[in-house]
Each structure stands twice: as structure tokens, then as C-alpha cells.
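We examine the record.

___
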Amino acid sequence: MAIHYYCRHCKTNIGQLESHTDATSLGFDHLTSNERQDMLSYQTNGDLYVNVVCDDCEEALTRNPDFYELDTFIQ
């Protein structure tokens, strides 16, 4: 099982961890059920995809707080 990190906004592949790490050791067990549904998706092959925000999108959101109101701000 690999854990893949992708930006929820621009869909950039941020990185991945190989099978020696489980979701509990990364603290995913501390997420609420809504946060888990929003951030995590398990694939049939056992891989876990995690939606996070990359540094570039975080900077854009910080500079333009009105972007938070949009469903997507990447064009």
C-alpha cells in the first residue's frame, strides 16, 4: 500500500510514501469522519490518496482570501 498526496486545488502530485507506513501512524485516526471523507480516498489496490493543499495554492489563498468562496480558483 502506498500513500499518495495530491493538491486538492491544482491536482499536483506532491509526493508519496511506500507501504511501510500505515494511516494510523500518520495521524489520520485523529481526523473527524467528515474530514476523512473529504481528504482520504482508498483505492481497490489498497493505495490511499490524500487531498492536501500545496504550497503554491496555499500562498494564492493567503494572498487572495476571496478565493475561499470559490469552488475552484485554478483556471
In short: The chain has a mean pLDDT of 89. Residues 16 and 48 are 10 Å apart (CA to CA). The chain has two helices and four strands. The helical segments are 33-39, 55-63.
